[in-house]
Amino acid sequence: MKKIFLAAVFVAFVLRGSAQNLATVSPVLKTVNDAAQPFLFTLNTLTAENPRWNIHYSGSYGERTTGQFGYDGLGQQFGVKGYLGSRLTLYATAALGFANGGGVASAEQAEVIRDLVGGKGIAGFRLGAGLGLSRDWSNTGSAISRITASFDRANWRMAGNLRFEKAFNRTRDKLDFITSIGFQHRISNALYLGFEALGQDLEGFWEKDEAEGGAKLLIGPSINLEPNHSKLSFSISGGPVFYATRSQVTSPAAIREIGNIASGNGYTVRALVNFNLHR
């Protein structure tokens, strides 16, 4: 009996040491990466375990579909994202657009989102809702609201958004619907690969006179790189844009991720560099 007891103690000691060594060699199995902004078109909320404040710069290029800033071609955007405490996330952006024929326009938006379910830690499920305001290229103001959902595990993460927009202009839609979803799988300790899909102006499926040219869909690869012990992280996404419905009415000044011009299918590519102010 004594020999059996000593053997059991020895086996338990060996297994404990092996588990510790595995956790040391493969931390990916034990940790959840605290990405501040892993997706390009889908917004995730921050938690007390996430980086508190971040600034980012993103650039985009599109063909036959105006980009993030309402212009066909190159665009750029500056943003800030921070954790306010009490499961509140602030997200604000300012964009500049340079027209092909000359001239510069700007657009801004700001949102505050609160996690209603989860949100105390990075891992697990989070569900949030928020409100905000925006001003587009034609100086038209809008009230915006967003529902966010995310699920983070050690080896993969998923996030989705449903955004509602009410423009303070009678020539625009009564209410715009925009939805997105992103999924990434962890390839190494610092690299995630996956896909991202975006549905924009979805009211075009039931409104023939949708004011931004009709419903549009995008799906493409999503990459997120977060080097260890670095304040910088990088994301890139994009793909073909399909115009699912058509409308003769267009409002090219509205802030849209994948554009407003319903002249044919196109594509867009967008890259982001994020700087963590606290790491």
TrEMBL record:
What range does the record give for the signal peptide? 1-23
Recite the UniProt keywords alphabetically: Signal
Protein's name in the database: Uncharacterized protein
**Source organism (scientific name):** Pedobacter vanadiisoli
Its lineage opens with:
Bacteria, Pseudomonadati, Bacteroidota, Sphingobacteriia, Sphingobacteriales
